[in-house]
User: What shape does this take?
Amino acid sequence: MARVRGKFAKKETTAEVMDPTKVVGLSPFQLGIARLRRDRVAVIGFWVIVAFVFMAVFAPIIVKIFGLDPYKLDRSAINDYGLPKGPFGGISWDHPLGVEPGTGRDILGRLIYGARISLLVGTIGTILTTSVGLVLGMIAGLRRGIVDAIISRLGDVTLAFPSLLLLIALNQPFTQRLVDLGVPRGNTARLTYILLVLMIFGWVYVARLVRGQVLSLREREFIEAARSFGAPNRHIIFKELLPNLWPQIIVLVSLSLPGYVSIEATLSFLGLGLYAPTASWGLMLGDSVGYYRSDPTYLVIPGLTLMILVLAFNLFGDGLRDAFDPRSDRQQL
Assistant: This one.
């Protein structure tokens, strides 16, 4: 009897595996999501990112609930030398992560508000570079010829410039130019300048990836079939090409965004980003250099926070890349 049950159980399992609605009917995107869910490291990275995004979006509510004020000067929390009272940077019930030397501002509150700046720059910068690179890459791949040559040479010229050095060297004149054009002076002008430079120098990588994929896809049978039936270019682009490009684009976005977050922190660290007293992780790291001996906690906490966010994005991006790798075997599901 046990053998009969085993046979029936085996037949049922085989039928379940061969069910076209469960395996054969899955799209490449659905297959990638299924693989991603089985990657525990990528899932952990995803939830860490969600936690940071939640913290950034609801920062005013969070600091109000916990009674944290990122801009309030608490002179009672620092001594006559400007150093936090108590061990580990003045950690207490009132200040769970301590206070800033010299000002007494709450570090946890500033970290929460600083996440808004970092994620804002990373998200908008990624959207701009991806959008420009996607459009130019598809144009180059579809039109080819002289159009492809112009876009490709433009990308080569762009990559020849040291983007970070230009970002530093042109900060003041371009920021002033933006103010003359009507952009509000201060942090708004600086953020606008940073995003524009990121877009100018970041679109090339996206465009090259998209161009290569389009050149490969345009020769595939389903594209030829769509053309033989008289499908317009709009249908080929939005119904045939883009659905096959999204997995690669999503992976590229997940790997690009932490780089832009780091650039914003680097510029603020160098004094070329936002103005004080705006809450920014880069500004906190820049200020902490003068206190790394007397108050090392002030250096470790924002640095560790930035490292955790960037690491979470990288782990999640690696998981996406492995999940959407077209060389993966479908039977692994």
In short: The chain has one domain: 40-332. The CA atoms of residues 154 and 204 lie 9 Å apart. The chain is about 70% helix and 0% strand.
